[in-house]
Structure formats: structure tokens, C-alpha cells
Amino acid sequence: MEAALQTNIQTCYHCGDSCVEEVVEAHDKTFCCTGCKNVYELLEENNLCAYYNLEENPGITGKKPIAEFRFAYLDDAGVEAQLISFKNDAICKLTFYIPQMHCSSCIWLLENLFKLNQGISESTVNFLRKEVSLTYFHQKTSLREVVQLLARIGYEPEITLADTDGKKTSKPDRSIIYKLGIAGFCFGNVMLLAFPDYLALTEGLQRSFGSFFGYLSFMLSLPVFFYSARGFFTSALEGIKQRMVNIDIPIATGLLALFFVSTYQVFTGTGPGYFDSFTGLVFFMLIGKYFQQRTYDTLSFDRDYTSYFPVSITVLKEDGEEASVAVRNLKVDDRIRIRNQELIPADAILLRGTALIDYSFVSGESEPVEKVVGEVIYAGGRQVGESVELEVVKEVSQGYLTQLWNNSVFSKDETQSVGTYANIAGKWFIIVTLIVAAGSLVYWVPRDTDMAMKAFTSVLIIACPCALSLATPFVHGHTMRVFGKNKFFLKNTTVVETLAKIDTVVFDKTGTLTEPSAAELTYTGKALTTKQEQSIKSVLQHSTHPLSQRIFQHLKGETIPVHNFQEVAGKGLVGEVNGQLIRIGSASYIGVPADKSDALKTTVYVSIDGLVFGFYAFHNVYRQGLKSILQQLHDKKLAVLSGDNNHEEARLKTMLGEDAALNFNQSPVQKLEYIRQLKQEQHRVLMVGDGLNDAGALKQSDAGIALTNSITNFSPSCDAILDATAFDKLSTFLSFSKKTMNIILATFAVSLIYNVIGLTLAVQGLFSPIVSAILMPISSLSVILFATMSVKISARRAGL
Amino acid sequence: MYIIFLMIAVSITVAGLFLGAFLWAVRSGQYDDDYTPAVRMLFENEVTDNKKPEPKSKA
Predict the structure, then answer these.
(1) In the CATH scheme, what is the code of domain A487-509+624-735?
(2) Which positions in chain A touch B3 (Cβ < 8 Å)?
(3) What is the mean pLDDT of residues A483-501?
(4) In the A/B pair of chains, how many CB contacts fall below 8 A?
């Protein structure tokens, strides 16, 4: 440890970041900022340094200061009541979502919160869901104190408007596990009882106990029939009601035939029945269902604006007093105060102060936009800088952005997709089965009526496409895991099939095609000497404006003292360095006509002693590997939807090709309409976007992918979340999902072989419980194995 | 041979008890989080290690 500290680049003992800007040394340790140091001291005081022993540098950087008054709204009894899940005279219970949680040290610290605040009696972490369940004594501490403590140690919980909607009471659905457990139990026991049938040696045993074993098997099959297999029957019934054939109809027919033929045989004493095959089938198919249902718990795919907006806001009353009001109760003409880093919840007019609005969540644009008094600020922006006063002009639900959610696409329930491979296959399956069954009936009736019945039911039993129904969930499930390993997270397994059918790809520009965090900086104009650059840098040092900061970091050299520094908010800076008057700011501030060709770029002009030298311009930087992805997608129709103006049109054209449709100045609703139009032209549309303004388009498209730099961060409602680092693999993902469709077809072929063998035996009346007991598990297991192996092999080949 | 009736009754009862135990475990939420408990059980030692030096210094 000692040696590590003495290396040239010092890393923060708390968060592990390298100490670039400053080095805070305390307690023989180095910290990158005082925030980190404070957390360390707090933990040390309370004897919680085991936090640092479990993992190296586990902390979360304390560079971002926490404005504790931000949590004032938590004192509001109404807000508290909506957040907590249980309250009695002594204790309160509630669950927080903490996306920052990342290692075992986090778990340890969060479960030892009671050492930091005596009022907390218990805290339990669910790491996979990134949740912590807290119990606290509300006489000793308050909700606000608990949240402030969490924020102080770097684990600020995410509390949003959606938390107060009361949706969170939904318990995890465990019914599939119950069904699986019961089916497994019954399957095992029935198989044990059926064992004498398999061996000719035990004929004597079979004669004396046959009926007892039969009745017992029947009893054991009842819970499977009525509980475990219920899903297949209801789904089949649903299909019949909607007059379409799905895969569950032939399955349900097969299961019904199996169950009733077996019951008939047992009660009439004509045979041992097929109860072992019946319970086994249900068990295997439930495994497939369970596999299909497993998704990513930590990721949320169905977020709307409510999971982004704050719970409450500071409203200024007429007498100038501040009050915390729930965002939902915000009315038109209310005056609100927005502080640094707070979010604007409703469209409002700026009344006082300089607003610098960061719209990165809305549009992906990283550059904060300046607004002056009198301008309308749309909801969803985050204020950077001083606190401002605004007057609400539209209610939260009526805002420019939130009106998207009033669109009909958001109220529609997701319907079962009809055209999936499995359902199409199921349709043909039932047709063929019925023809074969009818054929065998016609053949046998004149010859042997008993045989006719046997052949008819055997055909129905063997034709149960269980292997077919297993193929899709296993292939899709494994594909989803392969994608997950490559940081591409699908909402559910059906998205794989949707991706395979895509023929049109639509991109959002800002934040999706471009890198939101990096912008290229170029200088145009008279060349600056090193000394002049040094002077400019020194002036910029005193400004907190993000553009100033960006140029400041770009310039090299030491800073020198500046006199008579002045900042004209929203315009520019002025200062004297070495007797020279340096002015930096917008074209109008410097007093030059803006360069026409660059009018649409973000520019910062510089003048020295009244002489205009030139300007710095910020260009968008396109994501790495963008060109190769676009080339790989050439077989698909490409389009760009940008909320921005068209100054990048020429550059985009060269990258996307002449055929690509480029649309600029698109509002969120226009984006949605564009996708709808493409769909009406029978295109299968994939939308790739990142901001709230793409939410409508993402929802409207066949498959919506939200691109994000941090997967636990906010992302709009979508079908899949793609980590930005994996963006260059997008076309590989698409082609791989196409490949999996071939794997499914191959798996279908494998399962068909078993069905053909079984059917040949069935029409001849040779199908017996033993044949069934052998054939059924083999076909199911081989299909599972084949699907698993072939997905793994082709994933390796595709380099995923 | 009629002992088989008793044996099967016993075996199914025992199996049923296990099924009941499984269903109870699922219901009580033991299958909801299959990661954190595995990490949590390793903590106790670390904590006591950290606390040990204190009483020593007092003595």
C-alpha cells in the first residue's frame, strides 16, 4: 500500500480516481477532493474503515457538491407518505433505488448505516436490483436525514415522481417458480410409479399394484393439469378467441389428449396411461418459459418522464415565502425557484436570473443553453449555475415534452406478436396433425374400432410440439445473454426476433451519432502567440461558463493575474492582463457580424485591445466506428431524425450515403409521426435514440434502442438499452439476431424428426407409454442442447 | 409385498414435505436475490477484525 501511494500519479484513497486537479493529503492518505476526504473522515470516526479493506478504492467521488437544501421536500408529510411502504408508531420502512452501488464494499457500508445514524435500525441491500430496504425510528431521525446521510457518503438514492405514483407495490412474480416446483415434484414421483411399466421383469408387481399406481399417478397429475399447465390452456383459448393460431393451441390439444386418454385408461383398467409423459412435458416446457422470462432486473425499460422528474419543487408564494409543493400540484402562473442542478418540471418563463439550461437528458446536447429573462424554458432541462425564478405557463402533463405521453402509442398495451416463427410453425403443425389424425381414423375405423381410437389419440399426443415450443425460448434466451455480455440489454426475448426482421434503421443525431461529451475545438483567425494564449487562458479561468471551461482546458500554459475582471452574463468576459484588454464572448458582444457560414456553429470570439483576432468553434464529434457501422448497414434503409438544424447535412450525407433520408428540425412529435409513416409503408423500423425527445419515436418503432453512457442512468422507454461503448457492434448485433432465426429453423427440423418417427408409430397403432416415455424426454433435451450449443458456437464465430 | 403401500405413502409424504419447504422458501423471498446473501456472509469476519485492535489498546 505504501509503495502504491508513492507512485507519480496519485490515486484517491476513497474513489480511486487519479488526483489531477488537486491532491488533498490527510491521515497519511491522498484524496482527489475534499468531498472524498470528508467521507473518509466520517467513516473513520465511526470505525467503518473495513469499507476500504473489502475492495480497493470503493468510494464514489465526492467532487460534485451536494446541496442539502435540495432534500427539503422530504420533510413534507405528503411526500413521505408516498415514499414509505410501512409505518407504525415506532418505525418506518421504505426501499430506495441506488444506482451508484457497484461492489461488495458498497453492500457492507449500506448495511452498516445504523452505525452512522442511530435512528436507522436496519438496512438490507438487494445488489442485483440495486436497492436498499431501510427501517428507521421516525422519532429519532427523519426521512430527510436518512437521505442526506446517504447522499453525504456518496449513495444518493434516486427519488422521482414515479416513486410517488404508488406503482412500486408490484411484487416480483414468482408463479412460474411455483409452477415449475410443483410440476417437477409430480413428474419425479409419477416417473417412479411408472417405472414398473418400463421393465418386463416386474410384470407380477405390475399386476398386483397396477391400479394403485395408476390412481396415484392420476392424483399426482391433477395439480400439474390444473395449476402448472394452466398457462398453456389460457394462451390457447386466447388464441382461439382472437381467431388466430398460436403455438399453444397444438400444445394444449396434445396435453388434453394425453391427460384424458391416460385418465380413461386408468379408470377402465385398460392400461397404465401416459401420466409420466404428461407431467414431464409440462415440466420441460415450463423450464423453457422460465428461461424466457428471465430478464435484467436492474434495468428499467418502461420509464416515462415521471421517473425523471423530481417529486416536489420550491414555489414562491405571493408574500415571497418559499414552500415545497408536489410537482403534480403545480399550476399555471405559479412562481417557482430552480436552484443549481435542479430540473425544470414544467414549461415556464424565466423571470429572474441567468438560466443556463443543460438539456442533455432531453436532446443529448451536452452544451448548456443560455436563456435570458422573458424566454420560455421547456421542461426537462437542468439549471446549471445560480438559482433562477420562473413562472409556470403549462401544467406538467401539458408540457412540450410531456405531451408526447398523451399520444396514443403510449396508452396502447403491447399486443402479442402474431407473426413469430413459433406461431407460424404452430399453425402448420395443427393443420398437418389434424389431417394425419383424420387419415388414420379413416383408415382404421373399417378394420378395427379400438385401434382407430388408439391411433387417433396417439397422433394427437405425439404431435404435441413441445420441442418446437422449447426451441424459441432457448435460442432467444441464449441470444439475449450473449447480447447482455456485450452490453446490449434486451427488454425481453421477443426483441431478438424483431431485430432480425429490421429493414430500416433510423438514428437520432445529437447524442446518438455524435459523442455528447466530446466536441472538437478549432480556432480560426489571426494566429495567437503563446503569450496571448496565456492571457486568454488567464481570463477564462475566472469564468464558470462551460464553454469557457472547455477552451480553458484546451489552452496550454500557466495562468497569470487578471485585473478588472468582469463577466456579462450570457454574453462574455472582459479582463486586463499585462495591460492588455482581453474580451472573450459571443459575436454580438465583441461587436462583429457573425460569420455567415458558421452561423449555426457554437462560436466564441476573442479580441485583444479592441482588435478582433478570431474565434473558437465547437464541432460535433461523431462516434468512433460510426463510418464502418453505417457501411455494414448498407443493405438497410437509413435515416436520420435530428432536432437540430441542418448544418451537418453535408457531412452526414457522405457518411450515410445518398439514399439516406435526412430530416432536421424535428420536434419529438414529428419524429414519432415519421416512424409511423415508415411503418405504414410496411417497413420494419429500428430507432436508435438517446434522449427524452426520442421517447415517442422509440415507442412507435418496431424496436427502439436507447443508447446510454451509463446503463443505470436514465434512459427513455425502449425495447433495448445499448451501452455507448458497444455502439460499434450494432450491425453485428443485427446480423447475429438474423442468424439466430436460422438456428431456430434448424432446431425445428431436429424436433420434426422425432415427430415423424412418433407419427409413423402412432398411425400404425404401435405407440405405447414406453415409447412415449423414451421419445418425449429425448426430443426435449436434444432440442435444448442443440439450441444452446448452436447459439454459443455461432456467437463465438460472430466475435460476440 | 403390501409393505409397498406404506413405503410409497412414506416416500410421497417426505417428498411432499420437501416440496412444501421449497414453496415456503420461494414465498419468503429467498429466491429473489441470489447474489447479496453470498457476499454478506463474508462480512462478519472483517468487521470483528477491525474492532479487535481497540480493546487491546485500552488494555
Answers:
(1) 3.40.50.1000
(2) none
(3) 87
(4) 67
